[in-house]
Amino acid sequence: MKKIPCILIAAALFAAGCAKDVTTSDNALNKEYYEAWITEQSTDEYGDYPDASPTPVGNGIYILEEQTGSGAAYNGEDFVWVDYTASSMDGNISSTTDAEIAQRLQIYSDSFYYGPRVWPTYVSSLPVGLADVLAGMKIGGRRKALIPSWLMGYDRYNGGAAEYLKHTPANASTAIYDVTLRDFTSNMPDHQIKEVESYGKATYGQADSLSYGFYWFELDKPSSDSEFSSSDKVKINYIGRRMDGSVFDTSIERVAKDNGIWTEDRTYGPATVTWATQYSELKMTLAGSSESTAPITGFQRALWQLRKGSRGEGVFLSTLGYGTAGSGSASRGYVIPPYSPLRFEISFVSLVEE
Fold this sequence. Notes:
Shape: elongated
Number of domains: 3
Largest sheet: 9 strands, antiparallel
CATH class of the largest domain: Alpha Beta
Number of helices: 8
CATH architecture of the largest domain: Roll
Oligomer: single chain
Number of strands: 17
């Protein structure tokens, strides 16, 4: 049976002894406990992290494990791409970008995206402790760090760790983050354009945009160049893909089953697009539904390129898709992660005869 670390017993007794001392804050007691925990974790006899430094860095995080990357050094750029797993001090995982970990926890879904996640890092967009984790990392590097609760807030203060301790956010919890740095940029639109154009050139041999951030690649030529009229209703099939090629949505049942996203709650079949005088007014009704909704802007622009008999792929920046919010959540899983360019393959099926 594993022994109870003496230093943690001492910390607990210290906390109990000071519980009635109004001059000793809960935050100070928490700090005593965290320091005792990291000291024990960095010892061979009791600890899980023998290489951990008992000395805090930045504003007070503790580095438990570290592997130095071989790529460019992060120097405060506004956006980073990271793989990460977040857990509590006792090892309970709250979120992860790792598919294998999600499968092990039985929370994996083929509908969700697993892979690098974008973190904005400009002022007040990332908790102080996570900003400390990233400081000095290189692309390809990994850090596992203990982040005290008082560094899980977004506000910045002068005065170092002591000042942050005074401003511990309400309901904040200490967390362990295992972070691998994949990339960074201060120019998100430029980064996405390079990604989309690289895909276009590799797949289609060209990458000419029809408008800023929107690209159309023709797969099957139309049988007629005539545009649809505003009174038309057009049946279409579509396949929505992330830039890595994984399918997140489709009107085609076979494609849904082949990609593990089929659900019995949905009726598959061609969607009906109600045409209009401009792309922003296009509305779409899914098979089996009576509700008509406006698709995301990039999808609308792709539909606008469609002609009778044609098929093509629209590729567009995240500003024309799900933007900075994405679709889903960090804890439950993202179908579309924030800042994600998207691909939609769309094919004409028929005109609806009135």
